[in-house]
Structure formats: C-alpha cells, structure tokens
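Look over both lines before class:
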Amino acid sequence: MGIGVAVIAIAVFSLALTNPNLRENKDTYFGFIDTKLEPVHVYVIIPKGSANADNQFHLIPEEITVVLGKNNTVTWINEDDTPSTLISDLQGWSTGLINPGETTTITFNQTGVYNYHGNPHPWKTGVVIVLEE
C-alpha cells in the first residue's frame, strides 16, 4: 500500500511540473504565491536545536512573502526545546516568548520588508515581505 501511495504522489508531482498552466500560474501547492487564491495561513518553524548557533537551520523558512488580504497572518511554531522570542529589527513587533511546543501568530497589515531576529538567540534571523493585494 505504501508503494502505491508513493507512485501516486510522484505521478501527481510530475504532472504538476509538466503542466504549463500550473507553472505559469505559480500554484501554491509547490510553495509559490498566487494572489488570486483564497487566503491561506503561513507557518515558520523554529526547529529543534535552533538555540545552538552551530545548528544549520534556525528558522524554516528564513524568508517568507505574504500578500495583504490573502495570507498576511504568520504563525511561528517552536519545535525547539528552548523558549524563543522573535523581534522585528525596526518596525517594533515581537512574538513574545514562545515556549517549546507553543505557537504565536502575527497579522501584518502594512506592506514592507520586516527583518527580525531571535532573543536571546540573535543568529535566528528572518524576513517577512508583505506585498500589496
């Protein structure tokens, strides 16, 4: 049964890659933005081990692009075993303390580029790009 599911998944993915309509429309199934789609929620993972500066991944993804009125609400999920706070470099927002296993959500209501970093983990850096609808 597992092999059949894998074959179907590969076939669907292959079909999507060969379908010019999906590629040209930048369908969100493969991580692209289509401003014509219904609103969706955006997630950023704080992965296990990200409190360690030597870890390869600190935020997944590090950069996200959202569109006002479509998907401008972002949720950070802390999968690490250490609490974390993410703070905007210039625009004055903060996630507040996100304990392990918890989430926090921020809705962006103005266009702009929002760089942010972790506290007390400044190596956790990310950017939220907010586009007009």
